[in-house]
Every structure is written in C-alpha cells, then in structure tokens.
Amino acid sequence: MNYHGQFRSFADVDFDLYMRERLELLKQGVRSENADYLLNVNEAEYVTHTVTQYTIEPLVLHFDDIEASSYEKMIPAELFPFNAFVTEGESYPKPVVKYHVPVSGNLDLLRCVPNPRVLDSCRVSLEGGAICFEIVDFSGSAEQIKREADRVIGYLKTQSGHLAANVAQFNASLQGEAETSLRNRKQELLKQAGTLAGLGVKIKRL
After folding, report:
1. Sign of the CA dihedral with 5 first, then 6, 11, and 15 last
2. Looking at the 3D structure of the chain, how many domains does it have?
C-alpha cells in the first residue's frame, strides 16, 4: 500500500474483507498445485507450510517508546478555533508538535478497519518506522496539547487492540482452513482419477 503523505488510520479497508481475500488466496494456492504432487504430499508438512505462508504478521504500536518533535507550520484559517482572528482562505504560522509512535509488523494493517471499530479516525503519516500525528499548538498550553495527544493515542490503542484480536483469530483459523482446502482438493482429484479410470482406455499423461 502507498504510505506517502498523510492517510486516515484504520479507516480504509474492512479487515473482514482483507481476511476473506487472504483465505481465497490460500484456497487458490491449493487448487493450483500439481495433482500428482498434492496426492502424494505429506499432509501435515503441507498444512504447516500453508499456515506459515498465509499467517498475518501482527501490527504492533510501541506506545512505551513514543517521542515528540516540534516545528512551525503554515496552518489554514479553516483549522483555527472558531473565535480566532483569522481571514478565511489565508494561512498562518503556528507551532506544531508531532508525536512519533514506533510501529512494527504488517504495515498494511494500518489501513484496515477492525471489528469492532471506533467510529472515529485520525490523520497520520508513516515516517522512519513510526506512525506520526500532529497537534497544532493554538493555546500555548502543554496541558492542552497533552489532552489532545492522549485522545489520539487512546484511539490508536483501541483500534490496534481490536485489530490484534482480529489477526489472532484469523491466524488461529488457518490450520482448519488449510486442512479443509487440502482434503477437498484431494477428494476432487481422486474423483477425477476414478472417472478417467472408468473409461476403459489407457490414460495419456499431459
């Protein structure tokens, strides 16, 4: 996925859809295997390999290692508090505090909507191995900045927690999905082989 610039965190693709697409890839992978190989493969080893291949690496936000940086930035008048003395369409320099939350794992999950979800979103960017968000300092108050940052961090914790549970549940289901896909495909292949054998003619190998 493209992570240039800002994007809405945990807001673009339902994890349920992401999960279904991954399961479909697993099933297609089993179906695409050579018939002779699949009929003679060690089933336990094949299932273990398939589970490893389609396991989703969890997304981990390292909230204990958050850092902050600051700089000045031109802020559009539309983003100022309602009682600010600004002119519509203009931009004004204001100090900005950027929070850096280190992140590891499957970064595609940053765009996935967990189930359940928080009916909110925040704009973030991915920079130097961290998910970053900005707080514009309109008040000159460290306490106000901290309150706003705590709200965003709380949102990120909740969403990433729900998503971690979704990923764990999906990964736990892979063993059964792989076993079922392999068993069904082998039954199909054996049925096809039986049909050919019943024709009473020599089978040509392709």
Report:
1. positive
2. 1
Q: Which residue has the tokens 């989703």?
A: 56
* pTM, rounded to two decimals: 0.85
Three-state secondary structure call for residue 8: strand
Which residues 6+ apart lie within 8 Å of 27 measured at CB? 177, 181
Give the CA-trace dihedral at 188, 190, 196, 201, to 10 degrees: 170
Q: Is residue 1 part of a domain?
A: no
Instruction: State mean pLDDT over 45-62.
Output: 97
- The tens digit of pLDDT for each residue in 147-161 reads 999 999 999 999 999
Residue 158 lies in a domain: yes
Q: How far apart are CA 178 and CA 141, in angstroms?
A: 55
Q: Domain span at residue 57? A: 7-191
Cα gap 88→28, rounded to integer Å? 55
Q: DSSP strand E in the chain: where? A: 7-8, 13-14, 59-61, 67-76, 91-105, 112-113, 123-127, 130-136
Give residue 40's Cα distance to chain centre: 36
- pLDDT tens across 158-189, in order? 999 999 999 999 999 999 999 999 999 999 98
By the 8 A CB rule, do 156 and 43 touch?
no
| Other C-beta atoms lying within 10 Å of the C-beta of residue 176 | 11
